[in-house]
Every structure is written in C-alpha cells, then in structure tokens.
Design a protein that fits this description.
The protein has 10 helices and no strands. The protein is mainly alpha-helical. It is globular and about 50 Å long. It binds 4-amino-5-hydroxymethyl-2-methylpyrimidine. 4-amino-5-hydroxymethyl-2-methylpyrimidine binds near residues 143, 144 and 215.
Length: about 220
C-alpha cells in the first residue's frame, strides 16, 4: 500500500507546530553547544515529574489495548514502553545526582508541566478511545525521539556531558519503538469507520505538540 499514512499527512499539514516541537530553540542550543546549564537542570527536574505522570497514562493505555485492540501484540508493545519508564526514572535519579538537581517532593511542577500532566490525566478515562490515546502516546515519544536524534547528528556540537541524555531518546532502537507505536495508530485508523475518532486523534496530536513546545519554553526559562 503506497498510500501515505494519516500521521504523515498530519505532520505535513501542521508542519510549523511539528517543527516547533521537534526543532525547538532549546534543542538547537544543545546541538550547537550553547545550552545554559540552568536550563538543562530545570528541564531535568521537571521532566522527572512528567515521566512519573506518564506511568499511569501508559498503564491506562495498556488497559485500553487489552480491552479494545484487535491485535494482542499491542499490549506487549506498550508494556515494553512501560518497562522502559521504570529504567528511565532510575536514570533521572542518577542524572540528578550528577548535576546536583534535587528530585525531592520539594520539587515544584511548573505551570506548563502541571497543564501537560493534567492533559495526560484527561486521556486516562475509559471514555477516551484506544485509538486516540495511542496516538497521544506515539506523539509524546516521537517528539523526544526526533528532538534528541538531531543532537546526535554528525556535525552538531552537542556537549559531551549531554550525550547520554541525547542517546536516551535519540537512539535508533527508540526510533524503531516509536515506529511501532505509529504503526499501531495507523492500523487503527484504517480499521475504524468512525471519522470522529480520527478527528479526535488529530486534535490530541496537536495538543501534544503545543504542550511539548510550552514544556521546552519553560525549560529555557521563558516567562
Ligand atoms: C515533556 N515529553 C516530555 N518528556 C518526556 N520524557 C517525553 C516526552 C518522552 O518520554
């Protein structure tokens, strides 16, 4: 089937937002080596809070996959993502140690982070279709994958001490993982006869991009 997928169509249709989320000035500042350490540390602490909120969202997605999916391998694919989050939380703790960032309960979520987490929570309810929720999950992971993969490209000046962070999301295996989530979403779009679900998924895709941009802005210290 040579037909372009729904998601690639959206990426073109909303190109500016996509680029805004995946080529954000904060990412560009990592890739050209001009990143300020306080911005990186702010991002690190806030992203730890976000990833903790991602856990129940992915758990809710597993429930939806189990109940609604036509393909039993979906649950296992999403479960692998959930297991990776467990490693990721440990990774954040090590990084926090390395950079002298305190990850206690004292760490206050920023406004954009709170709003993003609230958005995640709104996707956890049983009334949100599996197709819509899996699209959100793909978008959340794909934005980080594309962003950090850029920092690994040849000719970039990513500071060596930030390479492990860029590797974490920019690596090829994670790229393949994102492709498998995308394939789930595309399969669902093909099978649905309900145009409304596809429309809802598109709106959720756009909301993810907006939240990601706000999250980068916040890390950069924008008011
Ligand atoms: C804000 N978006 C944000 N943080 C992350 N860790 C990811 C996406 C990918 O897991």
């Amino acid at each position: 089937d040579q037909k372009e997928g729904v998601i690639d169509t959206w990426k073109k249709k909303h190109h500016q937002l996509w680029v805004g989320a995946t080529r954000h000035p904060l990412i560009l500042s990592i890739s050209d080596g001009t990143i300020h350490l306080p911005a990186f540390k702010r991002w690190l602490g806030q992203d730890y809070i976000f990833v903790r909120a991602l856990v129940p969202f992915v758990a809710s997605l597993i429930v939806k996959a189990w109940k609604e999916s036509d393909d039993s391998s979906d649950v296992e694919i999403i479960l692998r993502g959930m297991a990776a989050l467990s490693d990721e939380l440990e990774w954040f703790k090590k990084q926090a140690n390395k950079w002298g960032v305190h990850l206690s309960e004292m760490l206050v979520p920023s406004r954009p982070n709170q709003e993003y987490c609230r958005f995640l929570e709104s996707l956890m309810g049983p009334e949100v279709e599996y197709t819509v929720a899996v699209t959100a999950y793909w978008a959340i992971e794909a934005v980080y994958q594309e962003s950090f993969a850029l920092c690994l490209e040849e000719g970039t000046r990513t500071p060596p001490e930030l390479m492990d962070t860029c590797q974490r999301w920019g690596n090829e295996a994670f790229g393949k993982y994102c492709s498998s989530l995308k394939a789930i979403a595309e399969r669902r779009f093909k099978k649905t006869s309900d145009e409304e679900v596809i429309k809802k998924a598109e709106v959720v895709f756009l909301r993810v991009l907006e939240h990601e941009i706000e999250f980068w802005n916040m890390s950069r210290g924008d008011p």
